[in-house]
Amino acid sequence: MNRALRYATVGAIAVSLLAGGSAAAFAAPQDLHTSAPTVATAPAAASLTAKASATTVKAWEQFRITGVAKGIKAGTKLTVQQKQGTKWVSLPAQTPVNSSGAYAVRVKLGIKGVNQLRMATGSTVSPVVSVTVR
């Protein structure tokens, strides 16, 4: 930065402070020669999708839950959760997210009736998938 530009910046800060400027006047001066301002972007929010391979199964019949994880690192373990009463209970069915963000897990259920399931990792959960066990 040349000397004249530096003096002009210091003068602008001083005038701003005398005129009742905010603490933002203390920020480091930007390089006036850049072509585009930099914009900070927030990290992508993590999300999960889920789809069951069957909507109705016999007790203990195997089916799959598949989906895509976005904003979640490859290798992260996803857990199947089942709604039991008012609580979500983690089942002993886990699967890792692959390098493209996809996942698939095999599930067997023994509780007859409509079962509400979801995939979870940390505080990120998928939409609920319903599977009826007959």
From TrEMBL:
UniProt keywords, alphabetically: Signal
This protein's record includes keyword Signal: yes
Signal peptide range in chain numbering: 1-27
Name of this chain's protein: Secreted protein
Organism: Streptomyces glebosus
Source superkingdom: Bacteria
